Fold:
Amino acid sequence: MTDEATRVQANADTHEEALAHIDIVDPVRTVRVQRRLDTEPYRVYRAWSSPDALSEWYPDAVEGALAPGTRSTLVFRDHRVWWDVLEAEPDRRFQFRWPWLPNDDWITVVTVTITPRGYGSIVTLEDGPFDLTQPGVLEAYAQCLSGWGEWLANLRAVVDYSVDLRRNRGMG
Structure:
């Protein structure tokens, strides 16, 4: 290889490496989703804080209590996940932590804030932090973005219209 060819190849290699590396200015993200519901704050709070009400729109079942300081297990058709309740302010706020990755490698805190609005409520959910530089966390962040959007749509369907949007519920 000539000196010129070596220089061109070195520049091409450097250029490929530069293209392959992406700097994320702020790699720590939090998912924030907001929904307006046509139901009173006490019913929205109950949908999060009562095992029976929670299983009407989110998991298939809840094992345990959903009181602050307790660990419960959410049972879905294809997996189970623990859920530690951190705070519960009736009709206003519900907070828990849970794992996103296998072996509990990434744990986030979810804060649900319920605000009265007219005859209904505004539900604001924040889940995070997600450090996108950590292995597997980018995929968890993407699942969180799409998942909470779908689940809050189902919460609205259940509390506003008594309709469960989950398909094939109870079928394994």
Observations:
- Strands lie at 28-37, 61-63, 71-75, 80-89, 93-99, 107-117, 120-131.
- DSSP finds four helices and seven strands in the chain.
- The first strand starts at residue 28 and ends at 37.
- The CA atoms of residues 47 and 53 lie 5 Å apart.
